[in-house]
Amino acid sequence: MSEVAIEKPRWSKKKRFRNLASIGRSAKLARVQENVSNPELAPDGSLDESLIVPRVEVFPEDEDSEEAEDVPLTKDTAKEVYKEWIASQCKDTTKMFAIIMMDTFRTRFGLTDVAAATEAGMVVGFNEKTVRTWHNNFYGQGGTFSQSQQGRHNHRCVLDDEDCRKKASAWLHENAYKKGPNVMTAATFATWVNTDLFPNSHLSPGFPRSITTRTAAKWLHNLGFSPRSYKKGLYFDGHEREDVIEYQKLYLRKIEILQSTHLPPPYGLGGETEELIGSSTAEKRLVLLYHDESSFHSNEGQTWQWAEENRLTLRPKGQGRGLMISDFVDEHHGFLRLTPEEHELAKLSHPGLPKAARVIFKFGAQGQGYWNNDHFITQVELAIKIAEFKFPPSNNTLLFLFDQSSGHCAYADNALIAHIMNVSDGGKQPLLRDTVWDGKSQRMVTENGQQKGLKRVLEERGINTTGMKKEQMVKVLEEMRDFKFQKSRVEEFVLSKGHRVMFIPKFHCELNPIERVWCQAKKYTRANCDYSFPGLERIIDTALDSVSVDLMRKFFRKVREYHRAYREGAVIGKDMKKILKQYKSHRRVPENSLDSNPA
Predict the structure, then answer these.
(1) pTM of whole model > 0.70?
(2) 243-304+317-410+489-592: CATH homologous superfamily?
(3) How far apart are CA 146 and CA 135, in angstroms?
C-alpha cells in the first residue's frame, strides 16, 4: 500500500497544528464530520473507504512561512489530527472516531485488531478492550450504538413501603433526641433496621434484607434527617407536643381575655401607633412583668476576629467565673426599677425599698453558691413591693410571667404531692399541709404527729386500697382535685399578695421578650470583654442598661405578633420564623400567611 503524501509545514515549537476548524477544510475530513452521525457501511459490513481520511492538509502557522513539504501520513500524524477534533465532541462521536481510527490503522497500516484498537484507544483516552467492544457492538447492531442504561434501572427502596416508612420515622423520633452518651448514629439506625424492621416487615421479594451504614445514612436524609451542629437559638424540641400545644392555647386565651378587659399598651418609638389591643374604656392598665435569668461569663468574648492565616489570639479555654442576672421587664419602663424621683418618694413612704428588682448573683464554689428557689422567692417578694409602688394596684393589674424551669415550678415543703408519700404512716416523708376534700377537712398528720401514708389517706376518702401497689395509689390520689391542682410555691406567694401569675408554655422562649434583652446585653459584654472577672463585674450594669426602653417595646410587640400568629393556627416554631419574615410591619401578621398551617 502506497503512502499518501501531504504538505509538510514548518512546525512551531509551541503548537504543531492550527485549530480543528482549519484542519477541517480538508474535504475528506469534512466529509467524515458530515457523515459521522449516519455512516454508510460497505456491502461486506465494514466502513466505506470513502469515509476514511486519505490525506490531511496541514497549514503553516505563519503566512510568510516557506512552502510546506509533503510528508508521509503516519500513525502519530493521524492521532494528532483526530485528538484535536474529538476533544470537543460528545461521547458517541468519540466512539465513532475510535472505530474509524481502528479501521484506518487496520486497513492503511496493516495492524492487527488488538494493535489498531490500542492505537485508537491512546487517542480517545480509553483502553484497547473498550474500543474493541465499541467496534464489535457497532457492526453487530447494523451501524448504531446501544443506549446506555446507566441510572435507568428501576430502583426499589424499602422506604417506598408506607408501613416501613412509618416505623422508621417513629423509631427515629423516639431515639434521635435522647440525651446521654448513646447518641443515635447511622450505624445504630442500620442495626435497628437489620435486626428489627426487616424481620418484622412483610416485604415482597426483591427488597433487600439488610443495609449498610452508608445506605442507612441515605435513608436518614430521605426521612428528613441530616447532621447538624449544636447552635444557640430558638429551641423547638417539644414545641409540637400535644400537651404543650394544649397549654399554649389556654395560655393565649387567658392573655387575650386580660388584654381585652384592660387599657391598651403604650405607644412605640417615634410616635408610631400600635394596633389597638384592649379597651380604651377600661379602668385599669394590664402590666405584664416578664421574668428570667441569664448567665454571663468572664471569658465569653467575641466568637470571631480579624486575623492573618493560621494566627489567632490565644484565649482562655474555659468560660471562667460568671454572674447570674435575674430581673423583670415591663413594656412601660423596661427593667423593673424606680426612677430617681420615685426612689426619693419611696424613702418617705416605703423606707428601705430598693431601687431595682435586679439581682446579680455570683454563682459557683468561689461565689455565693448556686441559685435556688429560696433566692427566687426572695426576689419575687422584692419585685412585688417595687411594682406595687411603681404601678399602684388601684389603676393597674399586675401579671407576673415566669418560664417553666424546675426552680420556678418548685413546690412548697408541705405541698400536697402524692409521689413523695409512703404507703404506710410515718417514716421518712415530709409533713404535708391539711386539706379539704369533698367539703370536709382532712388532716394529713396523725394524732402522734406522724405523716399519714397513701393507704390511710385514700381509705379516709372512701377508696378501697386492697391489692393496690404504691404506683396505683399515687395515680389515684394525683387525680383528686386538691392534689391535682396543687399550685407551685411562687404561684401561691404571688396570689397571696393579690396579683396574677402565669407560666409561659414550655419550649416557647420566643414568647418571653426578656430573652431578646439578654441577647443585646451579651453583644455588649462580648465586645468589651477583657477576660477577667473584675472586668465583667465592672461592665455588667452598663451592658444591661445599653438595651433601651424603645428597643424593649419592639421586643414586646414581637411577642404579640407571635401570640396573634399562634392564635391563627401556626404551630411549628420553624414555620413561625418564616411567617414573621414575610412582612415588614411590626404590628400585624398577614391573614393569608397561615393558610398552609391549619390548627
Answers:
(1) no
(2) Ribonuclease H-like superfamily/Ribonuclease H (3.30.420.10)
(3) 12
